[in-house]
Amino acid sequence: MSIDKIKQRIPDYAKDLRINIGNVLDPERADGMSADQIFGTAVATARASRNAELIALIEDEASRHLDEAWLKASRAAAAIMGMNNIYYRFVHLASNDEYGKLPARLRMSAIGNPGIEKADFELMSLAVSAINGCGMCIDSHERILKQAGVSSELIQHAVRIASVVHAVAALLDAEQATTGVEAAA
């Protein structure tokens, strides 16, 4: 099981992450999230976190739970939000309000036709937006999710997945970076 491989890569000093990665990906502890939602969010947030090893391990595990439509939508959520989060974070942070009045003129068809339920795509988009730090996108996706009847607990769990996956990706990056430094010392 790939989750066990992830846990094995986490050193003892970060045992909280080892425990948390198992917990957030466990359907029994997911505050009502389906396996599709859990593993779709894990794929999207692993890709947003950019650690190749973690992406491979998460996608290997997710392939046991998700069909091709979900895998494609998860990847699309990471890709499209990677673009949107930068653009809309700029619009939000720029002192000049004029940018918010101009059309974005960016293609975003994946949002309108994700190949899975719209609310599920919005949930993954919100989790990726949390990693990328775009408050404007977080608010927009959260509002759409609440209008669709998604509970606060389910939304919170998606962000828990994002936070743990991102922390594990950063940890693996740091471990890889320091392995080379320690060997050279």
Describe this structure in words.
- The protein has 185 residues and is mostly helical.
- It has ten helices and no strands.
- The radius of gyration is 17 Å and the shape is globular.
- The model has no long low-confidence stretch (mean pLDDT 94).
Layout of SSEs?
Elements: H1 2-9, H2 15-24, H3 35-49, H4 52-62, H5 68-93, H6 98-101, H7 109-112, H8 118-132, H9 135-147, H10 152-184
Helix pairs in contact: 1-2, 1-4, 2-10, 3-4, 3-5, 3-8, 3-10, 5-8, 8-9, 8-10
- What Rg, in angstroms, do the CA atoms define? 17 Å
Instruction: Give the beta-strand count.
Output: 0
Class from helix and strand fractions: mainly alpha
Helix fraction, binned, reads: over 70%
CATH class: Mainly Alpha
Rounded mean pLDDT score: 94
